[in-house]
Amino acid sequence: MNNVSSGERLKIKRDSSWIADNIVTLIFIAFTVFGFIVSDGVTMNYFLTELSSRFFRNAFLVLSLIIPVVAGLGLNFGIVVGAMAGQIAIAIMRYFSIGGYSGMALTFLIAFPIAAMFGYFTGVLYNKTRGQEMIASLIVGYFANGLYQFLFLFAVGVIIKVPATHPMIKPDGVGIRMTVDLVKVEEGGLKYALDSIMEIPFMWAVLIVAVAILLLQVIRYTKNKNKPSFNGNQRMMTLINSVLSLVLVAISIFAITTDSSLMKVRQVPVLIGVFIISLCVFNELILKTKLGQDFRSVGQSQHIAEVSGINVDKTRIIATMISTVLAAWGQIMYLQNMGTLNTYGAHTQIGMFSVASLLVGGASTQKANIRHAILGTLLFNSMFIMSPEIGLSLFGNALLGEYFRTFMVYGVIGLALGLHVWRSNKKGKATLN
Amino acid sequence: MMVEVKENKSINFKELISKIGLPTLIIGTFWIILLITGGFLGISTMTLLSDTIKRAGMNGILVLAMVPSIQSGTGPNFALPIGIICGLFAVVLSIEFGFTGASWLFVSIALSIVFAVILGYLYGKLLNAVKGSEMTIATYTGFSISAFMCLAWLMIPFTSPKMGWFMGKGLRETVQLDGIGAAQILSDFWKFTIGGEGGLIIPTGMIIMFLLCCAVVWLYFRSKSGIAISAGGINPRFAQASGININRNRIKANILSTVLGAIGIIVYSQGYGYAQLYNAPLMMAFPAVAAILIGGATATRAKVSHVIIGTIIFQGLLTTALPVANQLFAGTDLSEILRMVIQNGIILYALTQVKGGGK
Q1: Higher-confidence residue: B172 or B253?
Q2: Cα–Cα dist B84/B259, whole Å
Q3: Containing domain of residue B238, as a range?
């Protein structure tokens, strides 16, 4: 039974054309390459510096979207709610002037119950809006934003009494300022509290990651060598991955030994990198547990999962809670890197951008993994860096690039979702006939 | 005997609530409380009501655009920005061609209908391809087209000095309509005031336009074609079995919805006095969706009466909340927060009532 179904699935995969599967990813690669060709103002150094800092800011948030997809909830635009929880935690820290490295740890700790509670409520909502989770998650972000503003613009000051002289409170004593400085970590704040713990040169990081990927490929090859499921396609992928990482190793060793200009790329925060990698590992490991299997079965068919004794509603709520908590932590990492809390704006775009990143990596509403998240974050942020440059060099107007950027964000989400639904509808019709 | 009467009464009361709808009742009551509070605070009730009527007239047709799409089964038209873009493009074009005053209005509406029919047709095709996820896709289609038009407003070489920046290329963020004698052109038509100075201002022209559109939609959904659309929305399989072409009807309904959106934004712009370009259309679908839901519609059923009730209550609440909240808590932006919570809360509530997907 199992063999048959997996065989069928493989067949379907082969039937659908590879280009149609990866159209969004291909558009983005083409766009970035095109950007490099037309704009002469962008040096490799500038590009890599921007890309690496954007990657370390956003990857955690993008990774937090994977579990809801696996659990069949679709793309959780509701991570905005999690981001709010993170910001509330940061605001509490800032208000009581708690900071430093231990303060950072405390921020994560405080964000946890807040985000878990928010996640619980969003999870309950998703259960009530079954089948329409994605639009519900988008709207719940807007709705929560209203409550968030009520809390920070009105409740702080009118209901919760605060001194007007506090640097984060508006001068009239009601509400929190638009931007709050998080104070450097040496002076007892949270700014760069995670980044500054350990930093290594960019090329060294590339070297380490490339070697790690190479090792992984070798392990995978030796482990699966004799399995029949390890067919030509997968062999090919392993080979390509190995060659790519070998090239990266070569480039980084060359750069390090000759001390080329690539060494001037901004240093990389190791701890954030470790966090991102641990989240990747966590995402993989949880799928091997009982809970992870439940996520999968609920994601495949809620009905069958229910029949086989899984508490579907509870599983979906747990998936949402995990995603929300991770998003809260991701937002804290994002903000300590930014150094200032943009109180009413920092969270609003998070959902949209993270979802777009994941989709650019090749994910769909029903299938998402770490590779999609990492690749997507890199490609999406490349586009983000390049668009104003392209606008400037092609039309002499950077504003045009900004508008184009927004268009790409919305367009990518619309295109990826639309294509997915269209194709699964077509498939459904084909089986009916 | 007495007990029986009491029981009867309570049933009637429940029936009444279910007939009006709980959200309508709660939000309507809230509005009236705010109005009374405003009266006690010394804010002129007449001014508040005049503003309510003005804003309801401005937004009414945009809300009306939800009726065909809901009735056809594609859900509230979250892609309203498509229609809005058609309307705005027509407005900008007719200014570019040099029309002013009443001729501007007629040319804009005529042009906008042409654009809206074409785009509405394509949009309907799209919705038929993505059955089951219409609302999500519609939202992003609306977002995409607004963002795309930001590029267009900046790049299309318009030459009329009434719309361009003083320097550089592209159109202004807001195009003033009094420059072409078109600001409040409909609102001021047969405008009169009840109760002399400071009384209730009735923008007759705009109201007539709104009611005219309502009448057209109301009549249409009593025609054969309209009933077929509704039938397809209620039970697609049954409708298909009785020989109704569902896909064609869904396209028809969404063309109508897009056309109404286009006319709606022209009426809105003249009432406001400005045509807002760039990012303004992006979020305009949500208040319109919220208004019809407040009026008692669901994500699957809507009537013209829902539009009228919902628009008046929602716009009334918004216009009243601003001055009242400012009086009570000076310096806070409470009315904007209220709008966000109510608008998105009601949409979420409607989504929880959708029977879709299933386990």
Answers
A1: B253
A2: 9
A3: 55-282
- Is the torsion defined by CA of A162, A168, A169, A175 positive or negative? negative
> Cβ–Cβ of A399/B151 closer than 8 Å?
no
Mean of pLDDT values over B199-225:
90
Q: Do A149 and B340 touch (CB under 8 A)?
A: yes
Rounded Cα distance, B155 and A308, in Å: 58
pLDDT of amino acid A8: 45
Q: What is the maximum span of chain A, computed from C-alpha positions, in angstroms? A: 72
CATH 3.40.390 assigned to A20-201+265-428: no
Quick check: B344 and A158 CB within 8 A?
no
**Total number of domains constituting chain B:** 1
Task: Give B103 to chain A, closest Cα distance, Å.
Answer: 33
Of A135, A403, A407, the CB nearest to B139: A135
pLDDT tens, position by position, A97-109: 888 888 889 999 9
Nearest to B345 among A138, A143, A154 (CB): A143
Residue of B122, B127, B144 to mutate for A, most A C-beta atoms under 10 A? B144
CA distance B233 to chain A (A): 17
- The DSSP letter of residue A197 is G
Q: How confident is the prediction for chain B on average, in pLDDT? A: 86
Q: Is B152 exposed, middle or buried (0-12, 13-18, 19+ CB in 10 A)?
A: middle
**For A282-317, what is each residue's pLDDT tens digit?**
998 998 999 999 999 998 888 888 888 889 999 999
Enter the pTM of the model: 0.88
Structural contact between residues A390 and A332, judged by C-beta atoms closer than 8 angstroms: no
Q: Which residues contact A433 (CB under 8 A, 6 or more apart)?
A: none
pLDDT reported for residue A148 = 93
When pLDDT is cut at 50, 70 and 90, the band that residue A430 belongs to is: low
pLDDT digit string (tens) for B318-331? 888 888 888 887 76
Is the residue at B176 inside a domain?
A: yes
In a domain, B221, yes or no: yes
The pLDDT tens digits of the residues spanning A214-239 come to 888 888 788 777 776 666 677 777 88
Asked if residue B94 belongs to a domain, the reply is yes
> What's the gap between Cα A227 and its chain centre?
33
Which chain B residues are Cβ-neighbours of A396 within 8 angstroms? none
Classify B156 in phi/psi space as left (phi over 0), alpha (psi -120 to 50) or beta.
beta
pLDDT at B3: 47
Give the model confidence (pLDDT) of A176-200 as tens digits.
Answer: 888 888 888 778 778 888 888 888 8
Positive/negative CA dihedral, A383, A384, A389, A391: positive
How far off is chain A from B286, nearest CA to CA, in Å?
Answer: 9
- What is the residue extent of each domain of chain A? 20-201+265-428, 202-264
Which of A124, A132, A311 would you mutate first to test chain B, the one with the most B CBs within 10 A?
A132
Whether B302 is covered by a domain: the verdict is no
Report the helix count and the strand count for chain B, using DSSP H and E.
14, 4
